[in-house]
Each structure stands twice: as C-alpha cells, then as structure tokens.
Amino acid sequence: MIRAALVAVSLGVAWQAAPAQSWRTVESARQLRDSAEHRVRVRYGAGRIDVVATSSPVLYAMTLRYDQSTSTPLHSYDPASRLLTVGIESQSDHFSRNMGEKSKGEMRLSLSRSVPVDLSLELGATKATLDLGGLDLTALQLGSGASETVVDFSSPNQGQMRTLDVDIGAASFEARNLANANVANVRVHGGVGGVELDFGGQWRQDMTVNVDLALGKLTLHVPRDVGVRVELQKFLASFDEQGLEKRADAYYSDNWDKAKYHLRLRAQTTFGGIELDRVN
After folding, report:
1. Structural domains in the chain (count)
2. Residue 6 belongs to some domain of the structure
3. Which of 68, 63, 28 has its CA nearest to residue 49?
4. Whole domain around residue 126: which residue ranges?
5. Does 8 reside within a domain?
C-alpha cells in the first residue's frame, strides 16, 4: 500500500472525492405591479428547462430543483430597470464527471402574458422546451451549448418582435410556428448539429432569415402560399432545390411575384445539407 501511494505521488496522480449531492426544490414568484416592458434574463447550466406563458397575476413563477452543493439559485429583480434574473449559478465552471447526476436538475418558468418582455436565455447542457406562444415578446436572444432545444410559438405573439437571435454550439435546435413570432428578422448561428425551422402559423409580415451553420443539416418547412427566395454560400454542402428557379445569384419559388408574404433566406454552410420542404 505504501509503495502504491509513493508511485501515485511520483506520477503526479491525485484523487479528489466528488462532493456529495444535496438536491433541493425551491419556488419563487413576483406579483405583477408594472405593465411596462420588462427584461428577463435566464441562466441555466444543466438539466431540463421548460418555459411557458401564464395568465396568473404574476410577472413570473419558477420551480427549481437543483444540487445545492454545486449550484446557487438566481431570482433577483431590479425595479428601477425592470430587470428580472432567474435560473442557476454554478459554483464552478470546471467540467464535472457527475454531469449525468446534474442533468437531473429541473427548472419550470412561467412568464406573464400581460407585459411586453425582452427575453434572453443562456443555456448549457440542457434539454429545453420553450413554448413562447401567447407572450408579448419584443425580442428573443437564445444562447445554447450542448443542448437539445425546441422553441414553439404555439399561438401568435401578442406584439411585434424586433429581433430573434439564436446562437447554438454542439446542439440540435428546432423552432416551430415561426410565423406566429411576428418578427421581421431572424438570425441563427450554429456550430455542429441539426437546425430545423418551421414557418407555420399566422403570417403578418415578410421575414428575412440568416443562417450560418458550420457543420450539420438545415431543414426548412415553408407554407406553399409563401414566396421563397434563397441565397446560398456553401462548401461541400448539398441543397435540395424543391423546384426553385435560379435567377442571377438566388433561387426563387414560382409564386414569388404574386405571393402576399415572402421569406428571404440567406444561408451559409461548410459541411452538411440544406433541405426545403414546401408544406400545405
């Protein structure tokens, strides 16, 4: 035993016991007192997160299950700037071998339908389901690491969004019913993974979508009555044209000139594929 210990020291090997996990569940909420626009910042590193709209008279309601040995809950509000910050703050930025255990964490967040919201989410290794239908969103910014994320505008946004900005790493990202977001400009930046964009829902304005995907597949589902224009910059990537006509430096759908609403897509990818699906 002494010899083994000496060998371990001579090789610079060290063992450190993993901290015991201590799971805790907390709930927090804030009564709605101000109908002006609010900024909501969400930080969540690992686990499952669900975001929904609520008609209750609260700005937000949150249920959080977390490991208090490694994490600290966030729930602060600045009335002067109308800034709400919620989620989890990790006590260490180092990679944990207990990520499987940490993934047992859960966060459920309900946001008020009654106030305009500028929403920003910073997610890590998460499984995220974000049903943002029925909110009054003025902007959405989503940063996601190694995660599986689904964003659904299941019902029309009550207001008009200025921007919708998505930045993902080694992750899969799916957006559903994007027409319901009521946003003119969408930007998606991706590292490695699949991106699926569904443009169903209620169209109220034209949309311009910029997608920059390093490695992976981009799939788009667009209603047939919407005019489509596609500009591509690709290297070793495939593109299913789905009957689009090439004009100069872009591809156009046959109904581009007469369609009531238009989708302009600018896509850039290095390796992967781009698939356009025209749906009824």
Report:
1. 1
2. no
3. 63
4. 21-279
5. no
Is 7 inside a domain boundary?
Answer: no
**Average pLDDT of the residues in 116-124:** 96
Q: How confident is the model at residue 125 (pLDDT cuts 50, 70, 90)?
A: confident
More confident residue, 2 or 86: 86
What's the average model confidence in pLDDT over 88-116? 72
In a domain, 13, yes or no: no
* CATH number of the domain to which 157 belongs: 2.160.20
Give pLDDT tens digits for 192-201.
888 999 999 9
pLDDT tens for 47-83 read 999 999 999 999 999 999 999 888 899 999 999 999 9
